[in-house]
Please model this.
Amino acid sequence: MPIDIACRFAFTLDGPGDVLLQFEAAAIPEQTILSANTLLPPAQHCARVPAEDGIGERIWLRGQGPLAVDYSASVEIDRVIADLAALDSLPAHLLPGETVKYLLDSCYCPARRFQSFVEAEFGKVAGGRRIAAICDWIARKFRYEPGASDANTTALDSFVELRGICRDFAHVMVTLARASGIPARYASVFAPGVEPQDFHAVAEVFLADPGGEGGSWHIVDATGMADPAATVKIGVGRDAADVSFLASFGPSFLTDKEIAVRLQT
Model:
């Protein structure tokens, strides 16, 4: 069933400045863009550049003053949904080269600091069973609390306070998976079940394929709001720093943001 997306956000640049945007559904094999329309503001410069792992595109804009972006799309999902608990992890030396960076610490995900914790808490299970156990643990222990974190909050901060928003749940999921030796990345998505509706954040983990030949990425949402079968990927990265819908290289102020995502009827 197609998913309809409507997105609008506005921001102000006090002087001439550069912003890097990533807000469109990615054209990738597991999701088909049936229709899409992007309206960008008049700008001094506009250019599209590839995003992380070839998933989606970023847009460079150079402008000044009040600026607004409007985007709408209809997307069909065709994603294989696996039983994570039935999947094994791959030994580090057999991992594809492009997954290695997702084992390492990043700006918001200090995985090495959690290695002793994951062994103590989840050491009796491995692979997809450990991922399922970590997801269940976060869902039980953490409180979803809008306003509880900001752009500087790391997975360690969220772990200490046991609260946050989707960004924080995803960072903790990514961090604990990496600490377990399982590649994990942060994904920005649209999903119809998110409340309040917004750009949503989930984790993706790399696990072995059932046949034992290679592996693949699987969506994990510890908030429980996004159904992987109805989740539209925007982009991926090491953490939120890699896939912000608006990264400003100079003073900027977000003045409006409205997002609606629904299953087409």
